[in-house]
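Protein of interest.
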Amino acid sequence: MRVAEDGFVRGEGLAGPPLPPGARRRTNWVGWALAGFVLVSCFLFVNVHDLARELRRLDPAEILVLVLISSADRLLMGYKWALLLRIVGVDLPMPRVIRYFYQGSFTGLFLPSHIGGDILRAWWVSRDSGVRHPVYASLVVERLLGFASAVSWAIAGAAVFMSYLRPQHAILWLLAGALGLVLANAAFAALVFPGVHAFVLRRLEGRRSRLVRLMHDFYAAFASFAADPRQLALNWLLCLLEQGLQMFLYFGIAVSIDADVKLLPFLAATAVFTLVLRLPIAPDGWGVGELSAIGIYGLVGLVAAQAFTVSAIGHIIPMLALAPGFLLLLGRGRDGTAGAGWKG
């Protein structure tokens, strides 16, 4: 086995995917220990026999439909990232960017966090395009826009959710939700104001520290995305659509296990639930998601075993949807370049 000049591992058998220079694999033992502890704690509320019964309700046809919904979500995520890259002049073919997205996302399933997969896909694009800081900055912009959409859905969902739980105050909850949406998105919109970026860059200029100079260069690349607010707004709208697909996936899981749910209250609860999943508490939200699902979905009529199943299957379906990433890692792209990964 040897490491070639392009950074790929060559030789007998399979080796781990290449990492960017200087990167090291580190296992997030604390995060996984927390996830395991919380998962075990969930069984204080969930009967194992009830959980097995809910899982048996899934059939292959329903799983296929759920995987297709999740695949549409993954493709949209790759497309959104390609649009962000084009703002800063990275004009790689769309299929190649989506391929790198799938490869990085699949690899991230086996790294301590999805950040490792994000860095890999950014490294592959940077290697092909010769663009460095803007590509890595695109990951930050992508995450911020995704978080902004999740917050927007969560605020709207919380307002509808509370109106469902306390219908006598529905008007007040909806008004509070509308105000919250305005304030939250105004805070995120500040990222596209040139004055904000100019203020930060002035504070970073003229410093001799190598770290501060690196921060300046990276932030300048980050600020360059503000040059095209229309494309950022389009990306944010696509993030809202993507978040909606994820919420619909959870609704599909609930229907597939024959849970008695009403569409609007369930989606409102899911908007809050998916925001909790984004919080960096445990790897991929394992454990925390299941415990949160028991509490949140319990308010709209799901028993503990059903809520646990919805959350757990919600982790597994996207993993199945990313399976093409494994084949892409092994294969070759249509442009004739080696797949960014393992080769025997």
